[in-house]
């Protein structure tokens, strides 16, 4: 039973880690990263290491997540902007030197007539 529970927690750590890497929204990615740390703390608790579990929960899930969320909030980078600026397209109305509109992550053309 303990092996199954530990396997489930390890799968949750892996899923939360992959989710943290794949999410484009920084706020959601940090929440997923905090969840991965929380699941790691649970795994340490299941492996009979309560001191390591408390340290992981306090520092990994708590303090590190709080610091990253604070930094995201202060810099204003938590939102998925959808469209990115392209190097070399400044001053051309959103068009590169070739005259074609720049496409953002949404596939919509920016700039132009």
Report on this structure.
This protein has 113 residues and is mainly α. It has a domain at 24-78. Helices cover 60% and strands 4% of the residues. It is built from 3 helices and 2 strands; from the N terminus they run H-H-H-E-E. It has helices at residues 2-22, 26-46, 50-75, and strands spanning 102-103, 109-110. The chain has a two-stranded antiparallel ribbon with strand order 1-2. A hairpin with a 5-residue loop joins strand 1 (102-103) and strand 2. Helix 1 runs antiparallel to helix 2 and helix 2 runs antiparallel to helix 3 (50-75). The radius of gyration is 21 Å and the shape is elongated. It starts with a helix and ends with a strand. The mean pLDDT is 81.
SS field, number of helical segments: 3
In which order are the strands of the major sheet placed? Answer: 1-2
Question: Could you describe the largest sheet, including whether it forms a barrel?
Answer: 2 strands, antiparallel
Query: How helix-rich are the residues, as a percent range?
Result: 55-70%
What structural class results from the helix and strand content? mainly alpha
- The rough form would be described as elongated
Order of helices and strands: HHHEE
Evaluate the radius of gyration.
21 Å
Spans where pLDDT lies below 50 across 5 or more residues:
none
**What separation lies between the terminal Cα atoms?**
65 Å
Mean pLDDT: 81
Q: Report the sheet-strand fraction.
A: under 5%
User: Would you report the number of β strands?
Assistant: 2
């Amino acid at each position: 039973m303990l092996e199954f529970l530990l396997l489930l927690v390890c799968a949750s750590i892996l899923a939360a880690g992959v989710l943290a890497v794949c999410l484009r929204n920084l706020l959601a990615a940090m929440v997923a990263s905090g969840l991965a740390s929380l699941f790691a703390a649970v795994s340490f608790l299941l492996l009979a290491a309560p001191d390591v579990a408390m340290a992981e929960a306090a520092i990994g899930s708590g303090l590190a997540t709080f610091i990253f969320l604070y930094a995201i909030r202060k810099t204003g980078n938590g939102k998925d902007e959808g469209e990115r600026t392209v190097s070399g397209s400044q001053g051309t109305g959103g068009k590169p030197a070739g005259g074609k509109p720049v496409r953002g992550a949404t596939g919509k053309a920016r700039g132009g007539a």
